[in-house]
Amino acid sequence: MRVIETVAECQEVLAQARATGRTVGLVPTMGALHAGHISLMSRARAECDVVAVSIFVNPLQFGDPDDIAHYPRTFDRDRRTCAQAGVDVVFAPSVREMYPDWPAQVATTVSVGGVSEGWEGTSRPGHFDGVATVVAKLFAIAGPCRAYFGEKDFQQLAVVRQMTADLSIPVVVVGCPIVRETDGLALSSRNVRLSPDERVAAVVLSRALAVGRNLLQQAPCYSSTVAEAMRLVVESEPLVHLDYAVAVGRHDLVARELIEDPREVRLLIAAELGPVRLIDNCAGLEVVADMAERHQRHQRHLERIG
Ligand code: PAF
Q1: Is this structure's pTM higher than 0.85?
Q2: In the prediction, which pLDDT does 298 show?
């Protein structure tokens, strides 16, 4: 496995791979790798010839200086995780390598309309501009490839898809299922910052989603009823302060009052536990095509491992 720190070297190595007919898979991360990231790497490994993982804690996407100061950094462990997952290239640039004038303001940024608005976009102003800018840079560095993102950051995935389509970037964006702890908590690099009590309380997010999803099975129903039911579940847990719990369209992330088809819905939830912000989401009802695709992929995987 090669660890690369410069943009030029990363561009060259991945361009060379393509020149020899190999396909490239990119897994953008901010490090502090966990089983959710490993699932992205495994998927990239199964579908691409060369797998590159970027590890870069992107200052542009943090509004709160305290948040970036406490963001877990575990590079040596991450490196080993990547090697074990069969990654070929780790791209770990410095902040100056990515933003040469840093800490001066970055002159060119990418701003995505529509799906960036509301939810995380409202609670974390500027966050999605930071994400879109760094992902656009990573796509420019990686070149044509398949890029793997977790559905845990569902709005981020929508922003990245929108940007990639609008700017005609030759990258296939692949959304991958959320990986959860056995009690239902979605894996996140931020979970390590929870106190033992907060860790126990955090499971209320996935419980609220399950309650919302159950209600959706009775559709047609009202999104405000679903949102209210999720809110009540979260409010039963005093350590958790709800930011939002909503039922939105799975493509445009807009809440509509009457829900007729739960397959078109995504439930989104965000809350603060002490200084830690957690988000989670789930499908209103899994789309049959998605289930079929997952089944086929699983079959292909079984065939590959013999
Ligand atoms: O999801 C993340 O880890 C980050 O937002 C990303 C996509 C790597 C951009 O910094």
Answers
A1: yes
A2: 63
